Amino acid sequence: MIGAVTEAVGSMRVRDVPEPREPVEGEVVVRPGAIGICGSDFHFFEGRLSEHAGGSGFPRIQGHEVGATVESVGPGSALSAGQMVALYPLTACGHCYPCRIGRMNVCVNFSLVGVHEDGGLQERLLIHEVQVFPIDVESPVLAALVEPVSIAMRAVHRARIGEGEQVVVLGAGPIGQALLVAAQDRGAEVLVVDPLADRLELAKELGAETVPWTTAEDVVGVAREWSPGGPQVAIDATGVQAAVEAAVDMVSSAGRMVQVGMSGDSIDLRLGSLTEKEIDVLGVACCGTGEFGEAVDLVERNADRLAHLVSHEFALSDAPEALEFAMHNPRDVMKVVIRNP
After folding, report:
1. In the chain, which stretches have pLDDT less than 70?
2. How would you class 12 by CB atoms within 10 Å of its CB: exposed for 0-12, middle for 13-18, buried for 19 or more?
3. Superfamily of domain 2-145+310-339 in the CATH hierarchy
């Protein structure tokens, strides 16, 4: 069978890879049908992940946003061949401090499919059954959206978003759009900010109020007009300093600022913004298994709406070109998906 192997920093090649062995009890072999590409894939490919995050693990088959079909199962499995599934990519050690307090999604010794172990960019994949979630959708492309949607699910849980609250989302890429849908599902009103008109148009179609990014000062002013006193929740999905500053500045006293956008950059913030308003500043990583199950449900109920997040599809044989295209055309790309027919 073939797989797209990242052999070293900046080098991916489609070549023959070993077939998976037969699954034993607790294991499943799946056929990835659609694999989403995201910013963390770029970081791995470019060698910008830390060693702790798995940045030195070459060669590696990437792909952690996976919609698949079950091919074979180990003895006693509740799954069956032919089922459409989404793959939860994280395995935790169960022993470290985060695991002991129930936050296994930030396990100190975590292992991530497509980063620490081979992922979905191959024709078949052996995986633990507990990481396989059945999903009732028509296409593996929709199943592949569960993983990015699960990040949004984690964010709305961390933010404690409730009915009638006002939420500003900075950044209208795939995660920002997923945040919009997840916040709406909890009964919130949402204002989405982005510099790109087509991304704002999609957010508007999904039911958000929108405002184009100009300057941090202008956006903070608009957000405070939209939500007098400041929104209860501001979520940054960009990792860009100006947007992070705007989120901290605009959020209400006693509000919650949630950081979802990834960056290795240092951020300058006015310390008084945290103490004077006594805001909660919350980081978001991967989700837990319970939240992944909730993301499956959200995708099932919003399949038609979320399908618009996929802007480009490529074949598995063209995976290197797909990755390069996604990395070098950020203004034109919403979500690139690699298909394995």
Report:
1. 50-56
2. buried
3. Medium-chain alcohol dehydrogenases, catalytic domain (3.90.180.10)
